[in-house]
Structures are given as structure tokens and as C-alpha cells.
Amino acid sequence: MNSTTGALGAVGQQEAKGMQLAVEEINAAGGVKGRKLKLEEVDDQGSVNLTTAGFKKLATETKVPIVLGPGISANAKAVAPLADQYGVTQILLVAQPEVANGTKHVFEVPLPGKANSEAMVNYAKEQGAKSAAIIWANNPYGQAGNTDVTNAAKAAGIDIVNSEGFDPGKFDFTAQAGKAAAADPDAIFLYGAGGSSDALVLKNVAATGYEGLIIGDLAYSSDFIPETAGGNAADKVVSLTAVDYGNPDEKTKKFLDAYKAKFGEAPSVLSTYAYVSVQLTAAAIEKAPEYTGEELSKAIESLNFESIVGKLAYTPEWRGGPNADAFKPVTFKNGEYAVPNQG
């Protein structure tokens, strides 16, 4: 269940690509228990009402025992209670464990947003930062990021000297960048919205001549950052992300290469989460004695599944993704992913 059309269509399309690749790979290897996987795709167009209607149809008419998605927070919150109501296992693609925690049949793959903030602050502290500014997208995701980074910085002994929100629909962020740089912090944290405005914020920060650390959330690992921000700016940012683009292990590199070969682009973090959700599903089907929501949920909870975004270890109390330790630092060099130089 993805939002492949509508205002958030780009998000759902990334997720759909990740799922499609995973299904193709699993089926090419013989499927699961000798049977091929088939995706029954539902486009909710980003609408909460369509998400709810689509989930009910999948549960009662199509009678699938497991649903992957949605990846939009409001939609996920609306349908999570339905998973328990209908006894259907659900793997959400949102980074808000509070949506899934306390349920019987709902799980999440994405690393929690709060953990991303903690990873950013941990990296800054490791590099010796004592003070920082924050530039954050003025939407629910960015607002939460601002709060989480601020709290994590306080706990780490890093003084926040400036905090500026930006409208993701705008194109000029000279004012926010100028104020952050003028505060002369050791680091500037960037918390984006997942679109081109993130790169433009980075471009404006670099244009101030700021020479300290620039540390971004996972949005700053998107492959369009160098082209939109410019190579000089892209080389300055370090993103804490769920995918080790800069120094991938064998399993991650195989995925990155396969995705690029099929779609002609690097996978986003969202694509990767969706890919992992299918792998998790296949592992659960393999382990479960019956293909039912009840048994699939039990299987997922018992797996301790090692994935390319970290270990997915669920308990009755915890249904979120991996913790801050699973985030990897990545930067760019000459437009390509690279391992950052660490002081």
C-alpha cells in the first residue's frame, strides 16, 4: 500500500520500486516455500480515507494476511488499529514507533526519526562540537527533528545557539543560512523535508563561507543533492543515514548495484526500507507454520532479522526499527557517495 500518485506520489513510487525489486529477486531464487510472491498493489493517493478503504478491502475481500505500508504518517496512524481489528500483519514504512508500539500485528522497518537526531548529535560530539545551530523544515517531520536534535544536543552538552525553520515550498534560504552561520557554531544541523529545498538550504549555507561541520539527517543522503546544491556544497555535508552508501558491505552493494541496474538511479532510503519490508515478509512466511496474520506476526517477532538497514528485533513492547547505532555517516566527492573524513 503506497501513495504512488497525488501530492506525495514521488514517495510512494520510490517505495514501490524497492518492493518490486525484492519480489523479483526472491522469485528468481525460487520464491518462498516453492511458491512465487505476488504484490497486490493499492495506491491510496496520499488520502487517509483511501488508505482506510484500501486496507479494509485487502483484509476482507482480497483476504491478504499481510500488508506492507503505507509510508505516510497520517495514513499509517489511521490504519494501524485496523491491523489488529482484522488480524492482519502490517509492516509500516514510517519512522514513528509510537504508531506500532502496543499493537499485536503492526511492525515498522524505518529507523526512528528520534534515533536519526541522536545519531547526528553523536557524530557532532565525536568530532568535538561544543555548539550548534539547526535549520529545519517547517513541517511535522522537520519540527519533530528540531525538537529531537535540540533535546539530544542538550543531553550531549552541545549548546544550540540558533534555530531556524524553513518553508520546503520556497527556493531561497539565504536568511536562515546567514543567521545560522553568523552565530558561529561548531556545527550546523540540517533537518530536511526530502525534496529539492533540502539541497538549496545546503547550497545557501555553503555560500556563506561557513567552515564548520554541516551535518544532515538522512534526507541529505539523496543522490540529487550534488546536482542541486552543487558539488562544493555537497562535499561539505555529512548525512547520517540508514544506508551505507559510502562504504557498503557486500549485501548492501549487491542491492545498490541491482537497484541502479533496474531503475537507472541510486535507491533512496525509502526505497531501501520498502525493499527490506519484502525481505522481512519472505523470512516470516518461511518461518510461519501457517500463512495467517496471527502466525506471520509471531514469526516476525521471533526473527531478529539482520537487514541492510540494521537488525530488526521486535518485542511485544517495541515495534520500531533499529536504533541510532545503525546510522552511517556518508558524504559526497565529485558527485559520488564517499566516506567522510573524520577528525
Automatic annotation (TrEMBL):
Gene3D superfamilies listed in its UniProt record: 3.40.50.2300
The keyword Signal appears for this protein: yes
Superkingdom classification of source: Bacteria
The UniProt record lists the keyword Signal: yes
Pfam families referenced in this protein's UniProt entry, alphabetically: Peripla_BP_6 (PF13458)
Any GO BP annotation: amino acid transport
Domain Leucine-binding protein as annotated: residue spans: 4-317
InterPro entries from the UniProt entry: BCAA_transport (IPR051010), Leu-bd (IPR028081), Leu_Ile_Val-bd (IPR000709), Peripla_BP_I (IPR028082)
Residues in coiled coil: none
Keywords, ordered alphabetically: Amino-acid transport, Signal, Transport
Family to which the UniProt record says this protein belongs: Belongs to the leucine-binding protein family.
Record protein name field: Branched-chain amino acid transport system substrate-binding protein
